[in-house]
Structures are given as structure tokens and as C-alpha cells.
Design brief:
By secondary structure, this protein is of the alpha+beta class. The chain is about 30% helix and about 40% strand. It has one domain (about 5-110, about 155-195): Pnp Oxidase, Chain A, CATH 2.30.110. It has helices at about 10-25, 70-75, 105-115, 115-125, 135-150, and strands at about 5, 35-40, 45-50, 55, 60-65, 80-85, 90-100, 160-170, 180-185, 190-195. Strands 1, 2, 3, 4, 5, 6, 7, 8, 9 and 10 form a ten-stranded mixed β-sheet that branches. α4 (about 115-125) crosses α5. The longest helix is centred in the first third of the chain and has 15 residues, at about 10-25. The model has no long low-confidence stretch (mean pLDDT about 95). It binds flavin mononucleotide (FMN). The site of flavin mononucleotide has 16 residues, from β3, β5 and α2.
Length: about 200
């Protein structure tokens, strides 16, 4: 589930809610798994991975990660994201482009305190995406942190990112392949709306 609070009252967010409610009703699994792509300036490379979208608050879409990870470092330099949801239960893809920044530290603290202790032990113990000698070392680090750390205290290297969309494409797959693609683009203080060929 995505926690949704005071979502923006505009056409693309309204349409998002319509699809989200349909996918919930259709019991979509992993409904909050969202693929996010970042651009690494130094490597001149684009990279994608899934994260769990935790909140949509007003126009901010929020997930959490390690601030030392490759994605976080890429977002520090190139503050733009492309995100993708695909809900097979309703055959719908949603593509989003947005501007990204870190959430406030107080927001990250509040979220961290509310999580299960085991999840926090992992967030504290992992130098996410660094090379490590063995998987046994991963387990050892995790067990050590679980027994020896304050699991309610957020480490400074872990927290939220929020992105504010400026582009949405809703792709609705149809049986006859005449798929519907509806775009909303934020330009000059307003959302413009158009349809793309399938
Ligand atoms: C369904 C799913 C959800 C995930 N959720 C998160 C998440 O919320 N935060 C996170 O840091 N990694 C999450 N991961 C792991 C990431 O995909 C990725 O392996 C990790 O963040 C390292 O990415 P990076 O090296 O590109 O920074 C998730 C993986 C999957 C398959």
C-alpha cells in the first residue's frame, strides 16, 4: 500500500487515484513497487531499480534509501527522475518524470521510528551497494547491529527522497492492442493534456 495524504487536486493525480483504486480492487501484488531511473553524470550512464513508494503527500512522491548508494549519489548531481509503475491486474503502466530532492530530516526521523526494528537494523548495517567479501559478512553485520544498536535512531546516511512530477503518461493496454496513452505535462503553471499514438 502507498500512504496517500492530501493528494494534489489536479487532473493527473485524480487519474492516478482512479487507476490506483482499480488496482487495489483487483488485488494487485507489489502495488507500491516502482522502478526509478537515475542519470550518473560521472559514468554518463542511466540506471534503473525498484524501490517501494511509501507516501504521496500533496504533490510529493516519497521513497527511502541509503544516501550513500549509487542512486542517491546520482540524484545529488542530476536532480531528475523517471519512474515507472506497471500494474498487470489492470494492464496499466504509469510513467512519471519529476524533480527530486531529499525529504526533511524530521520527516525521515518520523518514518524511521515507525518501522519494524529488523528493517532498521538492515538500514543501519548496510553500506548499500558497496562490495563485501561474503554474504556471511552481511549476516554477521546485521546480527551485530540488531543486538548492539538503538534501532529507533535513524543513521544520517539513510532517509527519504521526494520527487515532484512534471510529466505523467498513463498507458492502458487494450485487448485489441489499440492501447490508450494519455499524457499530462506541466507547462507554464498548468497541466496540458494530450493523447499519443499507441
Ligand atoms: C520490489 C523491490 C522494492 C525495493 N525497495 C527498495 C527501497 O524502498 N529502498 C531501497 O533502497 N532499495 C529497495 N530495493 C532494492 C533496490 O532495487 C536496489 O537493489 C538498491 O536500492 C540499490 O540500488 P542502487 O545501487 O542503484 O543505489 C527494492 C527492490 C525491489 C525488487
Amino acid at each position: 500500500m502507498i500512504e496517500i495524504r492530501n493528494i494534489a487536486q489536479d487532473k493527473p493525480h485524480e487519474l492516478f487515484i482512479k487507476y490506483y483504486d482499480e488496482a487495489l480492487k483487483a488485488k494487485q501484488s507489489s502495488i507500491n513497487a516502482i522502478s526509478i531511473s537515475s542519470f550518473d553524470f560521472e559514468k554518463n550512464e542511466v540506471e534503473s531499480r525498484f524501490v517501494n513508494l511509501k507516501y504521496i503527500i500533496e504533490d510529493k512522491w516519497i521513497f527511502f534509501t541509503n544516501y550513500g548508494s549509487p542512486k542517491a549519489q546520482a540524484f545529488n548531481k542530476h536532480k531528475q527522475i523517471c519512474a515507472l509503475l506497471f500494474w498487470d491486474s489492470i494492464n496499466t503502466q504509469i510513467r512519471i518524470k519529476g524533480k527530486i530532492r531529499r525529504t526533511s530530516t524530521s520527516f525521515s526521523d518520523k518514518h524511521f521510528v515507525g518501522r519494524q526494528p529488523e528493517k532498521n537494523a538492515l538500514a543501519i548495517s548496510s553500506n548499500q551497494s558497496r562490495k563485501i567479501d561474503s554474504y556471511e559478512d552481511v549476516l554477521k553485520n546485521f546480527e551485530y547491529i540488531k543486538e548492539n544498536s538503538d534501532l529507533t535512531k535513524r543513521p544520517i546516511y539513510w532517509g527519504g527522497f521526494e520527487f515532484i512530477p512534471y510529466y505523467f503518461e498513463f498507458w492502458e493496454g487494450k485487448k485489441n492492442r489499440l492501447n490508450k496513452r494519455e499524457v499530462f505535462e506541466y507547462k507554464e503553471n498548468d497541466w496540458i493534456n494530450f493523447i499519443l499514438e499507441p
